[in-house]
User: Fold this.
Amino acid sequence: MAELFAKCDPMTLQANERKGGGASSRDLAGALGCENFAARVWTFGPGHEMAYHRHREQEELYQLLAGGPQQVQIGDELIAVQDGEWLRLPKDTPRRIVNHSDREATWLTLGAPRGTGVTDGIRLDPETGQEIPRT
Assistant:
C-alpha cells in the first residue's frame, strides 16, 4: 500500500549553506519524499543574496514567512515583499531573493516540475543578465 502522508518539522532538517557561504536552506520536499515538485525553507541573514538565476523547466512560488519586509530582484526591478505574501515566478524570469535589511528572513520556495535539481537553475550575471557557465 502506498504511503498515505508524510510529516516533518523543517527545523529538524539539516541546513545546507550555499557554496561560498550566505543563505542556507532545508530540503523539505526531499524529507517528505516529494517526487513532482521541490520545496525548501530558506534562511537569509542580513546581507545575504540568492544567486541571480532563471530556470529551464521549473516555475516557482516564493512566500516570505518571517523577517519582512524583504526584497526580490525580478529582472531590473526590486519588489518589496511583506510577511505572508506570495510571488509566482515563471521558469524564464530572472530572479533572486536579497536581504538588504538588518533582520534574518525566512522564505518558503516551491518549484514544479522538480526538474533536474540544481542544474535546472541557470545562473546569470546580475549586471548583464548573461548566463554564467557552471564550473
